[in-house]
Specification:
The chain is an alpha+beta fold and 312 residues long. The chain has helices spanning 11-19, 27-30, 90-94, 101-126, 151-166, 177-183, 187-190, 203-209; strands at residues 33-36, 40-46, 72-78, 80-89, 134-136, 172-176, 214-218, 221-223, 233-235, 241-244, 258-263, 273-280, 285-298, 304-308.
């Protein structure tokens, strides 16, 4: 049974919700959305039999060698409803200065849901108990130590291990904003551009240095204070960095660090984002709700490597 009624779905507001994305959110890039038709189900996990070498010579009148069967397992998913709502009172409408209250409300609700998704994906990758391999840098190994550390070498070493584990070359280096700020001033990185670049290095320069398709600066922030207290903003991704293989799009028989399984209930043409509007007379207000059904999962832990506390 679905959690919400489709009676109050609002197509124009749905389009606003789908189109509103904060540039600093990278959760859905790290864990690409995978549309699913059912709220719960299972996905297949294949073994690595395709890398086994077989004797292929066949003698006359002999039968061809039969390869070993696939080692096949599966994991379950369940898409929880992640939703928020807000109300617009008749008094607010009457005193509005022309601002589109409904658009602002949808944008605020969508942004809050995206913020929650970003935090959940961060915790899954970098939180305690994460299945993604990691190391905690300290002292002279931290990339903020411009004399002793070598971030390029550190990343290249882990590229070899990821490639060996999943047979794919890591294509993404995602770093928090503090890590980015240190990397662009690191002498060993600046030295690569000393004859070609004038001024401070940008993200595209670091993309070239680390030889990745994607160099993402994870700059999203959140309020760490309790509700009702003075805001205290901090970076969601801390002082950490992630090296990973991220497929351009979900594919079968393709390793990936993680996926966002998203149930398309009620809005298959809008990526599963539902916006509904209804009247509550007891509040003399209109209520707007935004819903997303998803389940985020790490699919192949060895497709990534985390550098915790990469800078001081």
């Amino acid at each position: 049974m679905a959690d919400i009624s489709l009676q109050y779905l609002d197509q124009p507001l749905n389009n606003i919700s789908v189109g509103y994305v904060n540039d600093d959110y990278f959760g859905e890039k790290l864990f690409p959305p995978t549309p699913v038709k059912q709220r719960s189900g299972r996905y297949w996990i294949f073994g690595k039999e395709k890398f086994h070498r077989y004797e292929t010579i066949r003698a006359p009148k002999a039968e061809s060698r039969e390869i070993a069967p696939w080692a096949l397992s599966n994991n379950p998913y369940f898409c929880n409803d992640h939703s928020l709502k807000d109300s617009i009172s008749d008094e607010e409408r009457a005193s509005s200065d022309g601002t589109d209250l409904e658009i602002n409300t949808v944008q605020n609700l969508t942004d809050a849901i995206l913020l929650d998704l970003e935090i959940r994906i961060n915790q899954l990758i970098m939180g305690s108990g994460s299945s993604v391999p990691n190391t905690t840098l300290s002292g002279t190994s931290q990339w903020s130590d411009y004399v002793n550390s070598d971030p390029i070498s550190a990343v290249e070493q882990q590229k070899i291990l990821i490639k060996q584990a999943i047979a794919k070359t890591p294509n993404t280096l995602a770093v928090s904003f503090p890590v980015y700020s240190y990397l662009r001033q690191h002498p060993k990185i600046i030295d690569r551009f000393k004859y070609t670049q004038v001024g401070i290095l940008q993200a595209d320069h670091l993309k070239s240095v680390f030889d990745v398709d994607n160099f993402w600066v994870l700059g999203a922030e959140y309020d760490t204070a309790n509700e009702g207290q003075a805001p205290n903003l901090n970076f969601i991704w801390g002082n950490n960095a992630l090296l990973a293989y991220i497929p351009p799009a979900p594919e079968r028989l393709q390793p990936a660090l993680g996926y966002t399984f998203r149930w398309l209930f009620g809005a298959p043409d809008l990526g599963g984002t539902l916006t509904k509007r209804y009247r509550v007379e007891s509040k003399t207000a209109d209520v707007i709700e935004v819903h997303r059904y998803d389940d985020i999962q790490i699919v192949a832990p060895t497709a990534g490597y985390v550098f915790l506390n990469a800078v001081a």
